[in-house]
Amino acid sequence: MRLISHTPHKYKDIIDFKRNFMKLFILLFLPLLLMASHISLQVLGSGGPEGGERASPSYLIKKDGKAIVLVDFGGGSFLRFGQARAKIEDLQVVLITHLHIDHVVELPALMKAGYFSDRGCRLNMIGPKGNEYFPGFNEYIQLQFGEKGAYRYMSDILTSQSESFSLKVHEVKKDRSYDFLNMYIKAVQVNHGVVPAVAYRIEIDDKVIVFSGDTSANSEALTKLSQDADILVAHHAIPEHGYEGARRLHMTPSRTATISQEAKVKMLLLSHRMNRTLGLEKEHQTLMSKIYKGKILWAEDLIEIKIP
After folding, report:
1. What is the CATH number of domain 38-299?
2. By three-state DSSP, how is residue 297 classified?
3. Could you read off the pLDDT of 174-222 as tens digits, one per residue?
């Protein structure tokens, strides 16, 4: 005797409705999901100025695998740029936090490489203002590529006469914002001793990435800039009890953690790992985790972090 199971009509109708609803959902929203952009942060250089196996500070923001933002370009970064398979043709903007050698020294190499690329459009570059100790970013670029600059043979990149591409230089003389295509950038001046310095907030689609650059963060500027960021890239250049002169230039680990917690940062990436902090990671992570309850990551050259 064979038993035949019958599904009651009302349950069958519910099952059919759910199936049809899921099909409709997939048809309507799958194309949108496939079209959604993927944003990631890649570290080119995670070290400091001392030398060693790490390149000096430099970072890329990638959209769908293409490097569209470059932040700082210290020693060793040009090699890492190639190893990351980045292309100068894809860059929309270069952001410079300050003019210490370990943050800018390889910019001329990048500009030279541009001559041999397929880039034909203007490249925007943003950097700090000057003072009695440092040139402003406009003057710095002129000292490099101007008609009387060190690399004057490339001076046409500052004019419309360039056969490859030209530079558009922006100097941050006060806090301000920039819009480049579908990207919003906020530049805020921060304290780095006598060195004019800028921190940046980059918003692409619905993702927010903040770069502190080198700063003692002795005001609330960085906290406000970092509000609700998906990731804050902060520099881990001094130990908790570093000497007073260093604390006038850089954040202590506890200060970094406090800013991250108050700003409700989702992830914290610690970079610019100098010799005086190497080996203290476990101690500093324990200290910082008591203050900041989000995820703490340690930067390594060429690591890439997807922004969820």
Report:
1. 3.60.15.10
2. strand
3. 999 999 888 999 999 999 999 999 999 999 999 999 999 999 999 999 9
